Amino acid sequence: MLAWWMQSLWEQNPVILVSWVYWVIFSIILHELAHGWAAIACGDRTPIESGHMTWNPLVHMGPMSLIMFALVGIAWGLMPIDPSRFRRRSDEALVAAAGPFMNLVLAVAALVLYTGWIGLATPASVGPILHGNVIIFLKVGVMLNLTLCLFNLLPAPPLDGSRILATFIPPYRRLLQSEQGAYLALAMLVVLFMFAGEYIFAAAMRITGLVTGIIEMLIAPGGSP
């Protein structure tokens, strides 16, 4: 029996469910690898020494994240780093920003592929089912990675935005490192996930719909499917 969120997506369209699962796992892996590549470039070899520079989703997400993803649709990843090995203090912000930046790159890449697909392929040339399924797959890639990019930039631990902000605002760093920091971080994350997460997801959907709609009007040989 499928979890409720899987059942919901399956009932909408099985292709949406398959696309969602693929893009979540693939995007989290590349998000974490981007942190690792940036850390290595900044002088920290912890990602290599810990064995995390791999494409194995079990390494990046872990069993608990994969179980939670299967049950409730929430997943996360981890890339171990050691900021004390960075060459400059600002490197911590650079490494933190690498993850969301990778999600932005993936969103743009999916959009470029989408543009090429609707510009070169038509339902008549490749078949209406394949044509529509590829469009769904690429739209999910754009929307999901925009969501991950924006959500990870929120300034709440353990999200990347908190590390970027803490790098340049010492009082915020001290607050997070204080005895009350863990409780504050948990409260901020819950509030942001419950409220900001919904708005970010909706915004990503609107942006995806707007941009892909414009592309369809401009270059699709046969219009939107």
Feature tags:
76% helix; mainly alpha
Describe the overall structure:
The protein has 225 residues and is mostly helical. It has one domain. It is 76% helix and 0% strand. It is built from ten helices and no strands. It has helices spanning 4-12, 14-41, 46-49, 57-72, 91-120, 123-126, 128-152, 160-168, 170-177, 181-219. α2 packs antiparallel against α5 (91-120) and α5 runs parallel beside α10. The longest helix is centred in the C-terminal third of the chain and has 39 residues, at 181-219. The two termini are 32 Å apart. 33% of the residues are buried.
Helix content: over 70%
Q: Tell me how many strands there are.
A: 0
Write the H/E string, N to C.
HHHHHHHHHH
Total helical elements: 10
Rg from alpha-carbon coordinates: 19 Å
How much of the residues is beta strand, in percent? under 5%
The N- and C-terminal alpha carbons lie at a distance of 32 Å
Low-confidence stretches: none
- Largest sheet composition: none
The structure class reads mainly alpha
Number of domains: 1
The average pLDDT value, as a whole number, equals 91
Shape: globular
